[in-house]
C-alpha cells in the first residue's frame, strides 16, 4: 500500500501491526558518469519490486530523497541534511506513526551516509519508548540484508557496495541507461580505508578525485537485473519476518 494513495480514515483503520516502511535515500554526486538522483532511483526500483510481491501487506511512505550527504558537499549539486538535523527528521517520521498506534516501523535505506544516523535514530526511539515491549523499530540498508548476488552471477567482481561502482552503475544501466555516462572509461578507485579495523572519519574527496569508489567499468545491465532481483528479494523477506513477529519477544 502507498501512504500517498490513502485517506486518513483508511490509514487509521489499518491494523497497527501493519509494517510501516520509510524509504530513505539521497540526492548527491555520483562521479562523472551517474546522475545525482542515483540512490533515489535505485531504492525506488527496489521498493517498486518489493511492493509487487508484498501485495498490500505493508504500508510504504513516499521515498525521502534528502539524506545525510555532507561528505559529498565538495561536489556540485549535492543536497544534504546535516547529521543532527537528519536524525531529528527520522525521529519525527517515526514518532508520527507511533502516535497513531503503529508498532512495526522500518527505515529502508538506499544511501551509505544514512546508515549511522538511521541506526542512531532507532536507538534513540527505543530509549524514549523503553517501557513498551510491543515495538519493533528497524533500520535496514537494502544491500546489507544478507544476499550474495555474486553467487547468482559469478561475473560480479565487487563483494560490497561502493559508490557509482560496478553495482550502482549496473543497476542504473538496467533502469535508466540514457542517464549513464562514460562508465567504461572510469578509473578503478579501490574501496576500503586505512587504519582498519578502526573506523576513520572521512569525506569523499579524501578517497576519490572523480567522486566514485569501485570499478564502474565492470558494469552491465544484466548484472543490474541480478542485483535488483537479489536486493528486492531481501526486502520482501525482511518485511515478511516483521509480519511474522509475535509482537513482544526479542527473537520474534
How many domains? The number is: 1
The class by helix and strand makeup works out as alpha/beta
SSE order, as H and E?
HEHEHEHEHHHH
Give the CATH architecture.
3-Layer(aba) Sandwich
Q: Which topology does CATH recognise?
A: Rossmann fold
By CATH reckoning, the class would read Alpha Beta
| Stretches with pLDDT under 50, minimum 5 residues | none
Distance between the termini: 24 Å
Radius of gyration: 18 Å
Number of strands: 4
Percent helix, as a range, is 25-40%
Strand content: 5-15%
Gross morphology: globular
**For this structure, what is the CATH homologous superfamily?**
Creatininase
Q: Counting H and I runs of at least 4 residues, what is the number of helices? A: 8
Strand order of the largest sheet: 2-1-3-4
| Largest beta-sheet characterization | 4 strands, parallel
Mean pLDDT equals 97
Brief write-up:
This protein is α/β, with parallel strands linked by helices. It has helices at 8-12, 38-54, 83-99, 115-128, 149-152, 166-175, 204-207, 221-244; strands at residues 20-24, 59-60, 104-109, 136-141.
Structure description:
This protein has 252 residues and is α/β, with parallel strands linked by helices. It has eight helices and four strands. β1 (20-24), α2 and β2 (59-60) form a beta-alpha-beta unit. The radius of gyration is 18 Å and the shape is globular.
Amino acid at each position: 500500500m502507498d501512504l500517498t494513495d490513502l485517506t486518513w480514515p483508511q490509514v487509521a483503520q489499518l491494523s497497527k501491526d501493519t509494517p510501516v516502511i520509510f524509504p530513505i535515500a539521497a540526492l548527491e554526486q555520483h562521479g562523472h558518469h551517474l546522475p545525482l538522483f542515483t540512490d533515489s532511483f535505485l531504492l525506488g526500483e527496489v521498493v517498486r519490486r518489493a511492493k509487487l510481491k508484498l501485495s498490500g501487506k505493508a504500508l510504504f511512505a513516499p521515498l525521502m530523497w534528502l539524506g545525510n550527504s555532507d561528505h559529498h558537499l565538495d561536489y556540485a549539486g549535492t543536497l544534504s541534511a546535516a547529521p543532527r538535523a537528519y536524525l531529528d527528521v527520522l525521529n519525527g517520521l517515526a514518532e508520527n506513526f507511533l502516535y497513531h498506534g503503529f508498532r512495526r516501523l522500518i527505515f529502508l535505506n538506499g544511501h551509505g551516509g544514512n546508515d549511522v544516523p538511521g541506526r542512531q535514530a532507532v536507538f534513540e526511539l527505543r530509549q524514549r519508548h523503553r517501557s513498551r515491549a510491543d515495538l519493533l523499530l528497524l533500520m535496514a540498508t537494502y544491500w546489507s540484508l544478507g544476499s550474495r548476488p555474486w553467487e547468482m552471477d559469478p561475473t560480479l567482481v565487487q563483494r560490497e557496495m561502493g559508490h557509482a561502482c560496478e553495482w550502482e552503475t549496473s543497476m542504473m544501466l538496467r533502469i535508466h541507461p540514457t542517464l549513464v555516462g562514460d562508465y567504461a572509461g572510469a578509473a578503478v578507485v579501490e574501496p576500503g580505508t586505512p587504519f582498519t579495523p578502526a573506523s576513520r572519519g572521512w569525506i569523499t574527496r579524501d578517497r576519490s578525485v572523480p567522486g566514485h569508489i569501485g570499478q564502474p567499468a565492470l558494469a552491465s545491465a544484466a548484472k543490474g537485473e541480478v542485483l535488483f532481483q537479489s536486493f528486492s528479494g531481501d526486502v520482501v523477506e525482511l518485511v515478511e519476518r516483521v509480519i511474522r513477529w509475535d509482537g513482544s519477544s526479542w527473537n520474534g
